[in-house]
Structure formats: C-alpha cells, structure tokens
C-alpha cells in the first residue's frame, strides 16, 4: 500500500487541516499519517484558539514517521511559526522526502489568520525550494507575488513568476473566482488549465486542504503531476457536489461520496 503524511494543523471540527487530509488520503486509497504542527479550536464559524507544537516535538513526530513507515508523498498545510517551518525543512532534507506538496495556508475561510507575516518569508525561503508543487489560492498568490490577481491573464503571470522564483510547479487555485472554479498549473515554463464547474455549495471549509491532500495521494500512487491534479480536481468536485450541510457557518465536505457504505449513505437507512 502507498503511504502519505500530512504535516498540518488539527481542526477540531474535522473539516479542514489534518482531519480533512486523512479523510482525503483514505478515500483516495492511500495509508495516511500525520505530524501535527498545531491544535486549533475551531468550527464552521471560526477559529477560537491555536496551540502550536514545539519544534522539538514536531521533529520527534517526523522522526517517528520517517524512520518507520516511510511516506511516498508529503502534504504540508498550516504551519504558523518560523521555528516549526525550519524544523520541517531540516527533517525533509535529512530524510530525502519526495513528492512534497506545499499548500501555503495563510487565512482560514472563516477569516482567521493562520500564519504570522514573518513566517511567510521563512516558508518561501525554507519550504518552497523543497516542493514539487505549491498550491496557493488567489489571495495567497497575490501575497506571494505582490500583484493583483483579477483575470485569467493575471493568474498565468502570477503562477509563472512564482514557478520561476522557486523552481517548482505552481497550481493557482481558482475557488475564489466569481463564476468558474478553474485551476491553473504552471510547470516547466508551460501552463495547463483544469476547468471546474462552480458548484453552488456554500460549504467550502477545507477545500484547499482536501485538494492538496488528494494531489499528494495521487503522487504517492505514482501518477504524474498533471494526472494527480486532474484526479484531485475530480475528487474535490465530487466532495462538493455531494452537498453535505453541517454546522452554522461554511461547513465541511462529504469525503464519503466516493466510498461504498460511507456515512451519508448509511445515515439514510
Ligand atoms: N464552489 C466551488 N465549486 C467547484 N469547485 C470549487 C468551489 N470552490 C472551490 N473549488 C475548488 O476547490 C479547490 C480549492 O480551491 P480554493 O481556491 O477554494 O482553495 P482555498 O481557498 O485554499 O481553500 P480553503 O477553503 O481551504 O481555504 C480548487 O480546485 C477550486 O477550484
Ligand atoms: C488547521 C487548519 N488548516 C487549514 C485551514 C484552512 O482551511 P479553510 O480555509 O477551508 O478554513 C483551517 N481552517 N484549519
């Protein structure tokens, strides 16, 4: 069985972070492991508290993982402090980790800031060069380039700039567009669109976490980056189209849509 690890924050409401990642990896047929960077107290309406792991403890989690069940792919999500980012980078280099997907998580759907400004600089310096693909959303793409991203041409230009600066592929996610949900992959000087029909579902908590974990799962299974993105896009569209509606705010998606006997189907009996 292929294996993957998520290095990210825990979401107590189970919609984003570690919990979304593990559900996604499992639904995509990959054995999931986790190194938790922070505990968050959050639900569909917001984040009320964050408790970071210490760099020492995070290092020990990564040692435990990499010295035993070596992961075929790595997904990195919320890491809010520079010291934690440095620990991750050092461990990934030490263990020669492969298929690293970096989701530069900055702000939650609910509006909470999940990384300090100073840590964004460390993320760029330490982790971006190790990534095989970065998956910023449009606001994150704007922060990373300092340019406004309003049109499809802007998305292409911004993704090109990031890809050239950090020498890795960039998937600029289009979930924040008004009419479409088209994602742009820029790799090796060329680009390709992954078009998605915008699904009229207000429950988008954890879409970014889910997409990056689905990409990591497919890379772990040996698919090319393009194939991995295509499959991940199908997965996120299916999870959104299942129209789960939980909680008072922007709710989580249904990861059970692809699994026989999953909880939503059972619940209807
Ligand atoms: N309403 C929607 N219909 C279809 N696809 C969507 C919708 N919203 C987001 N997506 C898709 O979900 C994926 C994540 O994109 P998005 O831009 O929302 O990332 P994000 O902002 O990082 O997510 P998060 O909500 O976790 O912060 C992309 O593939 C995007 O196209
Ligand atoms: C632990 C954790 N990681 C990531 C996100 C971003 O996801 P979203 O933007 O969908 O809230 C989150 N809310 N919590």
Automatic annotation (TrEMBL):
Please give the Gene3D superfamilies that the UniProt record associates with this protein: 3.40.1190.20
Reaction catalysed by this enzyme: 4-amino-2-methyl-5-(phosphooxymethyl)pyrimidine + ATP = 4-amino-2-methyl-5-(diphosphooxymethyl)pyrimidine + ADP; 4-amino-5-hydroxymethyl-2-methylpyrimidine + ATP = 4-amino-2-methyl-5-(phosphooxymethyl)pyrimidine + ADP + H(+)
One biological process term in Gene Ontology: thiamine biosynthetic process
Its domain of life reads: Bacteria
Q: Specify the enzyme's EC class, one word.
A: transferase
- The catalytic activity of this protein is classed by the Enzyme Commission as 2.7.1.49, 2.7.4.7
* MF term (GO), any: hydroxymethylpyrimidine kinase activity
Repressor among the record's keywords?
no
* Cited InterPro entries: HMP/HMP-P_kinase_dom (IPR004399), PM/HMP-P_kinase-1 (IPR013749), Ribokinase-like (IPR029056)
The Gene Ontology CC terms held by the record are:
cytosol
Supply the CDD domains for this chain.
HMPP_kinase
Q: In which pathway does it act?
A: Cofactor biosynthesis; thiamine diphosphate biosynthesis; 4-amino-2-methyl-5-diphosphomethylpyrimidine from 5-amino-1-(5-phospho-D-ribosyl)imidazole: step 2/3; Cofactor biosynthesis; thiamine diphosphate biosynthesis; 4-amino-2-methyl-5-diphosphomethylpyrimidine from 5-amino-1-(5-phospho-D-ribosyl)imidazole: step 3/3
Q: Where is the signal peptide?
A: none
Q: Which positions fall inside the Pyridoxamine kinase/Phosphomethylpyrimidine kinase domain?
A: 11-254
For this UniProt record, give its keywords in alphabetical order, as a comma-separated list: ATP-binding, Kinase, Nucleotide-binding, Thiamine biosynthesis, Transferase
Q: Which family does it belong to?
A: Belongs to the ThiD family.
State the protein's name: Hydroxymethylpyrimidine/phosphomethylpyrimidine kinase
């Amino acid at each position: 069985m292929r294996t993957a690890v998520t290095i990210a924050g825990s979401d107590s409401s189970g919609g984003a972070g570690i919990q979304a990642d593990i559900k996604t990896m499992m639904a995509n047929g990959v054995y999931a492991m986790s190194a938790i960077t922070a505990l968050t107290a959050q639900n569909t309406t917001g984040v009320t508290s964050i408790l970071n792991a210490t760099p020492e403890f995070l290092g020990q989690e990564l040692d435990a993982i990499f010295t035993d069940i070596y992961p075929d792919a790595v997904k990195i999500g919320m890491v809010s402090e520079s010291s934690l980012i440095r620990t991750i980078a050092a461990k990934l280099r030490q263990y020669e980790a492969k298929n690293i997907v970096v989701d530069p998580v900055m702000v939650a759907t609910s509006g909470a800031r999940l990384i300090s400004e100073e840590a964004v600089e460390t993320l760029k310096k330490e982790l971006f060069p190790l990534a095989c693909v970065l998956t910023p959303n449009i606001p994150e793409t704007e922060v990373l380039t300092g340019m406004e991203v309003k049109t499809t041409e802007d998305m292409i230009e911004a993704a090109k700039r990031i890809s050239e600066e950090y020498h890795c592929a960039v998937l600029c996610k289009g979930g924040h567009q008004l009419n479409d949900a088209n994602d742009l992959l820029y790799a090796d000087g060329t680009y390709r669109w992954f078009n998605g029909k915008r699904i009229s579902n207000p429950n988008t908590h954890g879409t970014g976490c889910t997409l990056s974990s689905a990409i990591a799962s497919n890379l772990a299974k040996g698919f090319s980056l393009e194939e991995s993105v295509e499959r991940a896009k199908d997965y996120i569209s299916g999870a959104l189209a299942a129209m789960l509606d939980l909680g008072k705010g922007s709710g989580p998606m249904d990861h059970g849509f692809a699994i026989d006997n999953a909880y939503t189907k059972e619940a209807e009996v």
